[in-house]
Write a structure and sequence with these properties.
Strand content: under 5%
Distance between the termini: 20 Å
Radius of gyration: 22 Å
Number of strands: 0
Largest sheet: none
Helix content: over 70%
């Protein structure tokens, strides 16, 4: 992120960041191997130790990929990143499924993860012309690492705030409790990352270029939040509505315990969308210290809530996430107003329509499911519910927000006609061009 955000970037910045990153990853890899057995002992699961040892290699692949990814993201060259993801995920997923069918158990997940990271690393190095020289500059490290160490601290805290719920569930309820909870959590986070992730990837370089233009900066953040809410809110509302039919159809009836967890975590996933662009905005403004403080507060609140919820049921842990994020969101609104000069009222107005129309769609689908229950098979009920929800939401959007529909359609049409070398926004950085770039990343991923 320091590479993406920095205005004046030199070759020495890239070389220094690469070698320090790889060296740090190797140290963490060694530490993970040394601590694997004690960690397995804490969780009372001896099979965990070798899994940790092998998965520690993922940090090395991540370090090898970090600088090339930053170069492409800084230049808003998202097509090579999308191709990398497509190739590595497709081959890695196929290998994981093959290993699972062969009876490899948990090692199919380990193999899938490592293959995806290794292939992704290879694809990245074919996509960038830059090659590191064996040199480390103290001056250039100082330029980057005052900024990036705070980002690293934020990432560690964000990891704990996102993983503390599963850790508490695993420790309190064992594998039987963790399995359904992990499945529900993965579905929610996958959907959030698939829709919001591409927009966030574009938001950081785009907002970094707008950091000295406060009005355009505010408009861009509000617009990103509006589009992501427009896409994500109905998605999570629909998931919550059809979860009783969807989960057994996709994973089998034995995963029925994941249904209520998925419905609760869908609310949490929708809440994440509202403030998804606060942290990229803070980074773009260079306020990484404040970002670290807010992440610390969120992590403490999340861990405390999960510890309380773990005394009851996994569902209580899921509710604790919602409570923590609601309280944290109030503080974020104040930060956005005072630090980022983003007024809360215009931002909230942008998400009123997606929220209300998604709730309307959810209520209509719930009533329809009650009428169809017992009359039709679950797969047919699921299909009818999905089609009805899509028609209702899209129809309401056509009536009440045709401008937003046109904006998204125009952005996608523009992205489809762009060539690989035309992904960079113009010097004026007009918001329409940024949205087109965002849609390019979204459609390609």
């Amino acid at each position: 992120m320091a590479i993406i955000q920095r205005q004046d970037l030199e070759e020495e910045h890239l070389d220094s960041a690469f070698w320090i990153g790889v060296g740090t990853a190797l140290l963490f890899c060694i530490a993970s191997n040394l601590l694997a057995a004690p960690i397995a002992h804490i969780f009372k699961e001896p099979k965990l130790a070798p899994v940790i040892c092998w998965l520690s290699l993922s940090m090395v692949f991540g370090a090898l990929s970090a600088v090339p990814t930053a170069i492409l993201t800084r230049d808003m060259e998202f097509r090579p990143l999308a191709i990398r993801s497509l190739i590595s995920t497709g081959i890695g997923g196929a290998a994981g499924v093959a290993m699972a069918i062969a009876g490899c158990g948990v090692w199919s997940l380990v193999g899938q993860q490592l293959i995806v990271l290794a292939l992704g690393c290879v694809c990245l190095w074919f996509a960038v012309p830059w090659r590191p020289r064996f040199r480390v500059s103290k001056r250039h490290l100082r330029d980057l690492y005052g900024f990036s160490l705070q980002i690293a601290g934020n990432d560690v805290l964000w990891f704990f705030s996102k993983r503390s719920d599963q850790t508490m569930v695993a420790y309190s309820f064992g594998p039987d409790g963790l399995g359904p909870y992990s499945l529900a959590s993965k579905i929610v986070m996958f959907l959030n990352d698939a829709v919001v992730g591409p927009l966030q990837s574009v938001a950081l370089p785009a907002l970094s270029k707008l950091q000295l233009a406060p009005e355009e900066f505010e408009r861009a953040v509000c617009r990103y939040c509006e589009i992501s809410s427009f896409l994500v809110f109905p998605l999570f509302a629909g998931i919550a509505g059809v979860a009783p039919e969807l989960v057994p159809l996709l994973y089998g009836s034995k995963w029925g315990a994941a249904v209520p967890l998925l419905q609760v975590l869908a609310i949490y996933g929708a809440g994440l969308t509202v403030f998804s662009f606060t942290f990229p905005a803070l980074v773009a403004k260079g306020r990484t210290g404040l970002q670290l403080i807010t992440s610390t507060i969120l992590s403490v609140m999340t861990v405390a809530g999960c510890m309380i919820g773990a005394r009851f049921t996994p569902k209580a842990v899921a509710f604790s996430l919602i409570a923590s994020y609601v309280l944290f969101g109030i503080g974020l609104l104040l930060i956005m107003r005072r630090v980022l000069q983003i007024r809360p009222v215009p931002l909230i107005k942008r998400i009123v329509y997606p929220a209300t129309s998604s709730l309307f769609m959810l209520a209509a689908v719930a009533l329809l499911r009650l009428q169809l229950r017992g009359w039709l098979a679950s797969p047919i009920t699921l299909c009818i519910s999905i089609v009805t929800g899509v028609i209702l939401y899209a129809g309401a959007a056509r009536i009440f927000r045709p401008d937003l529909i046109r904006t998204i359609q125009d952005a996608f049409k523009a992205s489809l006609h762009r060539t690989e070398n035309s992904l960079r926004p113009p010097e004026a950085f007009e918001l329409e061009e940024e949205l087109a770039s965002a849609s390019t990343g979204l459609s390609e991923v």
